[in-house]
Write a structure and sequence with these properties.
Blueprint: H1 8-15, E1 21-27, E2 36-42, H2 60-73, E3 76-82, H3 84-90, H4 92-105, E4 113-117, E5 128-131, H5 139-162, H6 168-171, H7 177-186, H8 194-197
Parallel strand pairs: 1-4, 4-5
Antiparallel strand pairs: 1-2, 2-3
Helix pairs in contact: 2-5, 3-4
């Protein structure tokens, strides 16, 4: 299945001689609680799916479908994360880049080039190119965003069972009215990002 719009960046790089590239993206930079996750994906050339898009533009049910298809059909894929303690120690920007680097290093095949969502790439140790809003422009980054988002949502579902009073299954740790209300009522739990709460 072809997704010509999403493959424009990759096809241009292939034409320039790039043999193997991955997309990498993160999920969970903005929440008040929980890990930040990253996905890295090497797709077969031309791979596509009607639902493939920036994970924020895809419904939860369709993200789950995409997650399974990507894991089954990708040349290689990896999911990694940075812990809450790391976020508090090194800040969220560095933590999200750390999670991305870990995801790339977790691939079973080393890419010649990584397409990194955003405009920063410090700490990425393979050759890379940043792509602002890349999850809307690149099939590889869009696929990585799906893996990161689904993996983080599943993790927050697990945390909802451990810390049920916060409603993590509903807001996934993001700063919603319900989350603020529960924080005022119960105070922070061990997976809350202390450096984020200082700004409240």
């Amino acid at each position: 299945m072809e997704c010509p719009d999403l493959w424009e960046i990759e096809n241009s790089l292939f034409a320039q001689g790039c043999g193997c590239l991955c997309g990498v993206d993160e999920a969970g930079a903005g929440p008040l609680a929980g890990r930040v996750y990253a996905g890295a994906v090497i797709l077969p050339r031309g791979w596509g799916h009607p639902y493939l898009n920036d994970s924020k533009q895809v419904t939860e049910r369709r993200r789950e479908i995409l997650y399974d298809r990507i894991c089954q059909e990708a040349v290689a894929w990896s999911v990694a994360w940075a812990e809450v303690e790391e976020i508090d120690r090194i800040n969220i920007l560095r933590a999200r880049l750390l999670a991305m680097e870990r995801a790339i290093q977790g691939l079973s095949r080393r890419p010649d080039l990584a397409l990194v969502d955003g405009n920063r790439s410090e700490g990425i140790t393979v050759p890379c190119r940043t792509v602002v809003k890349g999850d809307r422009k690149s099939a590889s980054i869009a696929a990585a965003s799906i893996l990161a988002k689904v993996s983080r949502d599943r993790y927050m579902g697990e945390m909802a069972a451990v810390y049920p009073v916060y409603g993590f299954e509903r807001h996934k740790g993001y700063p919603t009215q319900l989350h603020y209300q529960r924080l005022r009522q119960y105070g922070p739990c061990p997976i809350h990002r202390r450096t984020f709460l200082k700004k409240l």
